Structure formats: structure tokens, C-alpha cells
Amino acid sequence: MNYAPASLTTGAVPMPDVEPRRRPLVRAQHVDKTYSNGTIALKNLNLDVYPHEFISLLGPSGCGKSTALRIFAGLGAYTSGMMDWPQSMHDATGKPEREVGFVFQEPTLMPWATVFDNVYLPHRLKDRRKSEVQDRVKEVLDLVGLGQFANAYPRELSGGMKMRVSVARALVTRPKLLLMDEPFAALDEITRNRLSNDLLDIWSKAKCTVMFVTHSVFESVFLSQRIVVMAARPGRIIGELTVDAPYPRTKEFRLSSEYSAYCREVSDLLDVAMRS
Length: 276
Prior knowledge:
The protein is α/β, with parallel strands linked by helices. The protein starts with a strand and ends with a helix. The strands form 2 sheets. The protein has a 7-stranded mixed β-sheet, sandwiched between helices. Strands 3-2-5 form a 3-stranded antiparallel β-sheet, with helices on one face. The longest helix has 19 residues, at 257-275. A hairpin with a 4-residue loop joins strand 9 (226-231) and strand 10. The protein has a single domain, classed as P-loop containing nucleotide triphosphate hydrolases (Rossmann fold), CATH 3.40.50. Mean pLDDT is 89; it is low at 2-20. It contains 8 helices and 10 strands.
């Protein structure tokens, strides 16, 4: 178990069969976010995110996890600092063309549309005809285990299935970075554990980077290669921990002494965050 304080920078643990890459996919440098009422949501955020890694942001409510995620997605402005995309293509104005998918806390599906049409939506917004991308839509539905539900409607799906549709919709454009904001928080523990197992399989096959926001120590340890712990008031990184356990991670890992040791170490770091 490797613990690094916030002042240090550590490399990511590579996925199985993927060469480590030192050049970040995206880098936050001295990023601050202050709201108009004076509330400091983020202070001096420095974070390198590497290709193909699975990284979790963990911390108490109000520590800026979701704010940071939205800034990485380009959905929110920051007050100062810099966001750098070293490996991105750039548009005609010189701005990076971020290849990002976002999974929100709620599935936010269109109730009047089929599963297929909900997943097709990002391409529809780019004026791509359904016939051009139908194979890709079917591919991601198969990837999340919903290939047989393309013509179903959201009202016919369980909570876990709705979240799978949301993940498929985020993946349909082949993003390099998949951002997930507590996607399993509203689900029961059994469904949550099953989706965690499936998410690791999806991540491995999609070969994208995942940034995952969670309040759960146990979830972060099971999923992640790297756990970044944040404290509130102001929102900031106080440290990070590398989880060296190999993939695939199974029920046996959840029951292992190694898993318990990681959970204790992350819990100790989270206690520091709560007191900071």
C-alpha cells in the first residue's frame, strides 16, 4: 500500500496488459473555484489523470468532489488555475476537443424514448443519422448487458438497468475519459456490488480512463487503482493512496485481508479529511 501526501505526485498503476504512460491525459494545475457568495469550493487543486487508469475522488459532503468532476468535464468554470489536456486534439480556436462521457447521480433518461434512442442521443445532438451509428449503439448496449432491451422504455427497467443505460449513453461516443458522479449511490447494496463488478469489466473492454466520485471507502478500494481523498472548507486534496491489487477483482478480493487493510488505510485518511 502506497500512501502519498497531497504535496507529492505519484504515477498511476497501469491496467493489466497496458503499458504505463507518463504523459497525463488531463492535468489540473492550481485550480481554484470560488462562488459569487464567497464560498471556496476548491482550493489549489493539483491532479494528473493518466490514460486507462481508474481513479476515485473520495471525501465528505461539500469537499468539492462533484465540482472538480464538472470542471474536468468542461461543465463548470473555475476561478483560477489551468486545465491542460496534453493528448487532446484542438479545434480551430485552439481549444481542446475533450473526449469526455459523463454519468450523473441519476440516470436522467428520456421516459418517452426507448433504451436505444436514449443511448443514441449524443449522436443525435451531433446531427448523426441513426443508421450511421446503430451498430455502435448496439455494441455499447451489449457491453453493459442490455442488448436484449434496446426497444424497452425506462419505466420497464429496474434502477440498476437504468444506470446501465446511462453508462452506455456516456460510452457511445468512445470517450477517452468517463466521469462518474456517485452513479450507484441510490441503489441497494446487492445491485451496487454487482454493478461495481460489471463496471470494472466495462472499463477494461472500453479502455478508457474512469474518474469516479464516491462517499464509500469500500467502493473506492474495490474499484480503483488510485484514491484521491479530499477535505472540505475549502475543498482540497489532502492525500492519495495507490491500490496495488491486481485485476480482475472478485468476491475473494472483497473478503481478503488485503482488502480490509486498504479499507482501514483509506478510512484513516478520510478521518484526517473530516478533521481538517
